[in-house]
Amino acid sequence: MKKVLLALTFVLLLLVGAPLTQATTASAATAPVVLDSLTLPAGVQVGQSITATARVHSTSGTVAVQAVTVAVRSADGTAYDFPGATAANVPTSGYTFISGARTFTAGTYQVFAAVLINGTWTNLTPGQTLTVTAVVGTVAFDSLTVPAGAPANQAVTASARVHSTSGNTTVQAITIAVRSADGSEYDFPGATAATISPSGYTYTSGARGFPAGAYQAFVAVLIGGTWTNVGPVKTMTVGAQDNPITFSQDFNGPAGASANSGTSAPTWYTDPCCLWPA
Asked: Check: CATH 3.40.630.30 for 2-133?
């Protein structure tokens, strides 16, 4: 009876089509596709988006696989597979699969490549262990440099210097956020992921212009899916755009002549602030 139940369980797993657990990979030794390498990043922290890479080859000819993927199982057996499973033709010379990106909660995971051939999933050995740790360090503020007295709509940049308080801290994004007097967002472009060390990290934003007015600027980091403002707020003042005086009158009188010499008639020219006689 036990043998019948085990056989039925195995059949159900094949019908579902999900990668089998590490405990049921006995057939990997005779699979027509063999694992060459499985590459995972080291020092992964909670909220850090990562990918995995698997290199495989066929033992004879080109093998059409319905899907190749990198499967992940938590300590309790829950599936956390990398996205991006894809069909492929795997030759003897080899095939490289690069997964989509995903994040993980803190914990230890078993990771293995898996292929679906003729409706049957086969886990390829050896697997690897992926350890994801909680963020231990925090990001501390060193400096923030914003433009002073920039004219309206002139493209400007800003820069920030930060450091980690303990070990290397991986941030999903660092940026320089900007808020107007009414709270509207005018963030500098160029938010980027970074690994911040205790020795420090310098971030320089992309360029953008601002309407005239007063703004509050501050450094912000995204760690574990949560935005945190870092350091003090700085005021950034953007002035009105210059409005130069323009003339449409030709001045072609002789040297030493009066101010109106060469003009058809005495003329007043209008300036935004004053009136000047011709």
From this structure: no
